[in-house]
Design brief:
By secondary structure, the chain is mainly alpha-helical. It has two helices and two strands. Strand 1 (27-29), helix 2 and strand 2 (51-53) form a beta-alpha-beta unit. The chain is flat. Keywords: ATP-binding, Nucleotide-binding.
């Protein structure tokens, strides 16, 4: 992966992980766009259970 793509990926993953901190449940509403699906996909790597609405 080119350097810029790697940096964007790492920054996005870190941003999602930072917002998932704490002992709370999270739900995601998928709008059909790429951004909400991408964020929900990254979140599944950090959460035990993910609630998704579409």
């Amino acid at each position: 992966m080119p350097h810029a793509q790697t940096m964007i990926r790492e920054i996005l993953i870190a941003a999602v992980e930072k917002r998932l901190m704490g002992n709370r449940q999270f739900g995601f509403m998928l709008s059909g766009g790429l951004d909400s699906s991408l964020i929900a996909s990254i979140a599944t790597k950090f959460l035990k259970q993910v609630i998704i609405f579409s």
